[in-house]
Amino acid sequence: MPMTDMATPVRLTGGAVAIGGRPILRHIDLTVESGEFVALMGANGSGKSTLVRALTGLRPLAVGDLRLFGTPFDEFDDWHRIGFVPQRTGATSGVPASVWEVVASGRLTRRRLLRPLSRADRSAIDDALAVVGLTDKARDGVSQLSGGQQQRALIARALAGQPDLFFLDEPTAGVDLPNQHALADALRQLKERGATIVLVAHELGPLAGLVDRAVVMRDGRVAYDGPPLADHEVHQPEFGEAHSHHHHQPDHHDHTPHVGSPLDARTRRDGGA
Amino acid sequence: MELFTLPFMERALLAALFTGMAAPAVGTYLVQRRLALMGDGIGHVAVTGVALGLVTGTSPTWTAVVVAVLGAVLIEVIRERGHTTGDVALALLFYGGLAGGVLLTGIGGKSSAVLQHYLFGAITSLSNGDVVVTMALAAVVIVVALGLSPQLFAVAQDQEFARVAGLNVRAYNLLVAVLAAVSVTVAMRTVGLLLVSALMVVPVATAQQLTRSFRATLVAAMALGTVASVGGLSVSAVASFHAEVAPGPTIVLLALAGFVVTWPVGVLLRSRQRLHEPFPSGQPDRHEIAGDEHGHQHGPDCGHVAVPHDDHVDYVHDGHRHAPHGQHYDEH
Questions:
Q1: Measured between beta carbons, which residues in chain A are less than 8 angstroms from residue B309?
Q2: Candidates B165, B212, B214; nearest CB to A108
Q3: In the prediction, which pLDDT does B282 show?
Q4: pLDDT digit string (tens) for B134-150?
Q5: CB within 8 Å of A228: residues ≥ 6 apart
Q6: What is the ipTM of this complex?
Q7: Rounded to whole angstroms, how far apart are CA atoms B77 and B170?
Q8: Which B positions 72-91 lie with beta carbon below 8 A of chain A?
Q9: For position A64, what pLDDT does the model report?
Q10: Distance from C-alpha of A262 to C-alpha of B24, rounded to nearest angstrom
Q11: B163·A95 Cβ contact <8 A
Q12: Model confidence pLDDT, tens digit, residues B269-288
């Protein structure tokens, strides 16, 4: 096995996920190379969030082989190499917590039990806050932040552990445009530092320029895997084939209900006009 | 006051001090996970434990610890497994525990007056041994709750993140459940099983009216719990010269009084915070100048609410947002 393969951050072969006995994801092959910025896209219910949860171990695989950084998932315990940014609902709880405290909890992947924060811990936390632009909000309560700022705080929490691989689940959902730009700036800095990023998104918006590769989920399968697509192309049966230069055709029949198609077609005409 | 140097009173004060610190320490994690009533449930289950001790002639404290820990673990497992029927299952356990305890006491031929000591507390009847056990268990609870606070905080704040961070979420959840069970039995002699949850939850609710961080909430809740339990005991001791004043309810009512006092302050702080929250960035499309009658000069001391907006400050009054622009004010 070549050395480069050992370091491949994500390699899932023949993956399937069933929830309550019902198959949700089938026949998923996904490899993410070091330094790649991959967008997992698709309609609601297409399985994109389930896929990212399977990659982080939150959803067990029914079948398939998952390796993170070359290690089979069951033996994997380099959790400090992984940064997970869940959907924003996890930001608040029943007791107030400051932004600094939430971000500091991301440092736990590298802290030992019953040890106080070291100087390296503190500077990593400060750096994470600076990257997402929340340094002057550090002492505020998380619940006082806007939705977009909460999302940035969750990114800073993942960042505090200084991971090599980020999983982000719908970071742009329900976030206003200025905050989406702030989010894009933070992710650009991560990308420039060489991080590998897997991001679930319904729409990319300002993140579009950062994406190296798009993977489109449809009905629990990977329907497209290739160069980035514009937001409106994701929902077209042929993925904008008319004005792009790759020749990868989905080789199976598309089972997506056709209710959404007329609307999508109109969007495309509008966009092209 | 020679009352406070009487041996039974010294024992009671020591027990109140340790209970008042330990119960809110665990309560903070329960409130953080929105399980404020879990202490109440464990208290109900512990009644059966006390009754078992009374009937079999062993120490009710230890049987209560064992049964409460088993009950807490069972509650945690039910909560983890069943999402939809979880609260109903918990209710079954609560009332099963209470009914079982009362029934067992009757069958064992014990008077319900003995059980009352545990249901509503009997802090002035503690023996030396009781106080040592109370202090030791409370100390364990406090050390674990503070020592593992980074891990416990992370797990209670966001379980999914904690799992991906490699923490053993189930073990930490069980640990909190066990800590809650132990502090319930610690507080059982002070405020009684039926009021235990109040000492775990009310100081936390009071503290978070004024705090913005978890650490401050935890420390303030422990301080408030101590003040309430030691203060409540002292008040009831002094007042008992005039009437029958039970320490348990006095402690709980004092804690509640603390909440009643701080709640309006919390409401005020939160509404001020909302008013001063920065406006979203971006300027209005039209350049609209505030009316000519605007003779007032806005400034840092003019008394109007000043809200940051991008690179300047908007002054808010009478439904307007006025931003200084050269010699006039703009409507924003």
A1: none
A2: B165
A3: 73
A4: 999 999 999 999 999 99
A5: A39, A204, A208, A211, A212, A213, A214
A6: 0.85
A7: 9
A8: none
A9: 94
A10: 58
A11: no
A12: 888 888 877 777 777 777 88
